[in-house]
Design brief:
By secondary structure, this protein is of the alpha+beta class. It is built from 1 helix and 9 strands. The relative contact order is 0.15.
């Protein structure tokens, strides 16, 4: 009695069906991947802005002087304002091209609180290439009067 060997592997039909299903799934996921990548870049820009604000607050305490955060376009500057007529640039960073910032400034005093005392700051990121919505989240930076700095995930729901 002869034993037949079982063959292992896939037939061409099984392989084509698997490739077709994979292509359909990739096509269905493509629009969501675009939103995911855009949200990641906007979140990266927001985190960069948050980092610069925290650095400015830390420098104000460390230097025992006033330090300013200045934003414009896609640039964030941290300035030492010990001599207001001639501010010294401590650091300048550029955001990813997708994000833009309004022209804005706010200062931290030597205690780490906003100056003048009792003022709050708010900077919302926007984009020239996408419209911010519940799906495409543009973050917002909030600095309260006591000096607490936080980044809201979506400026539309940030209070």
């Amino acid at each position: 009695m002869r034993h037949l060997k079982r063959q292992h592997g896939l037939t061409i039909i099984e392989l084509l069906i698997a490739l077709t299903i994979s292509a359909l799934l990739a096509t269905a996921a493509a629009p969501f991947m675009g939103d995911y990548i855009t949200n990641s870049r906007l979140r990266e820009a927001g985190n960069l802005l948050l980092g610069e604000a925290l650095m400015a607050q830390s420098e104000a305490v460390k230097r025992n002087t006033r330090v300013r955060v200045s934003t414009s376009g896609n640039t964030v500057q941290v300035l030492d304002m010990a001599v207001p007529a001639t501010p010294v640039v401590l650091r300048e960073r550029t955001l990813p091209p997708i994000a833009t910032l309004p022209t804005s400034t706010f200062d931290f005093g030597s205690e780490g609180r906003t100056t003048p005392f009792g003022t709050a700051a708010s900077i919302d990121l926007s984009s020239s290439t996408v419209v911010c919505s519940a799906d495409l989240r543009c973050p917002g930076l909030r600095v309260d009067a006591g000096g607490a700095v936080r980044l809201c995930a979506n400026k539309l729901s940030c209070s």
